[in-house]
Every structure is written in C-alpha cells, then in structure tokens.
Amino acid sequence: MVSFCHDTDHLVQWPRPPKQKAMSAEEYANFPKFITMREVNVNGRILVTTLLDPALASVQSLGALYTMRWNIEVDFRTIKATLEMDVLRCKSQPMADKEIAVYFLAYNMVRWAMAKAALLADVLPRMLSFAGAKRLLGTFADQLRQTSGDQIRTLIATVTACMATLRLPHRPDRIEPRAKKRRPKNLPLLTMPRQVTRDLIYAQRSLNRVP
User: What dihedral do alpha carbons 151, 154, 159, 165 form, nearest 10°?
Assistant: First the structure.
C-alpha cells in the first residue's frame, strides 16, 4: 500500500486472482500481476476507483458520483416498468434485438423531450417526471401526427411547456425497499396458448351444460 494523501485516501495494489479453468495459460499471462487502485473513505463507505489522481477526482466528487448511482437503478426500472420492457414479445434473437432497440429509441426520445422542457424551466432534466412526460406525449400523440405547419410548432411548444411543470419532489438520500407491495394473485401459470385455453374452457362448459 502506498499512501499519498491521508488515511481516507490511498493507493493499494490488487494482486491478480488465480487462473480460471476456462482460461489458457497464455491468456492468464497477459494480465498484469498487480493493478493499482485507489481506496477512499466517504461517510464510512470504502469506494474503490481507477481514478488515481486526487487533483482530478477529489474525495467529495467521488462521493457525489457514488450517490448518483441510484439513477442507474431508476433508469433500468423506467425502461422495464414504465416502458413495459420487462417481458419481450418477440421470439427470435434478431427480432428481440430490434424490439430492445425500439424501446431504447423510445426512452431516448422521451428523455430528449424532457431535456428541452428542463431547459425551458431552467431545471435539471432528472427533476422532471419520466412517467408524466410519457403520458403527456401519449395523450398528444395523435394530434402531433396529424398537425403540420405553424400549428405543429405551437403544439410542440404547448406540450413542452406542460412537460416543464412535471417536477418531481425533492427527495435527498432517498431509500426504497427492494420488495413488492402488491401481493400476486394465486392463479396457475398459463402454460399453453391463450386461444387453446379458451377452447378448453368452452369445451368444459359444454360438458357441464345441463341438457
């Protein structure tokens, strides 16, 4: 260990782990025997980073960056839950790739509209509600498609101004339990095509029908 700052900020040497069975000796030899890492203590948390120069990345900035990690989980939840990408409909790999690409395109387009609205309101884009922006764009989708000329510019300006009002409450150091509040219904899993299941229900009703 080589200390360059104080006890809460120092460099350490991480040794190369043992060779994995799936790795050849040549591949293993290409990895360095040691890698230099930086460990910092931020509010009782030990953060490890490859940003070794404290002049370029201070302890405070690393702590702020660590706090922002929650945005990653929020973005994943938004894509899977708000955009409903938790279940893919396509079956083949090429079509599934296209489906995921369309979801990401839709996500980025909503974020782009939110960025314009945030600029108008002079706030950070993450201070606006993604779910609210999605609902707003969905509400005006038909009008946006059918309007042209000067009217479309007026409509876009109106939608952008409405989106700028969708501010989230200030929630510093927000913590949420990783658990479901709603209990799932005690129903069996659907293990066959829906239409086949319907036909079976109709057939069972016919058998139970009194002559």
Answer: -160
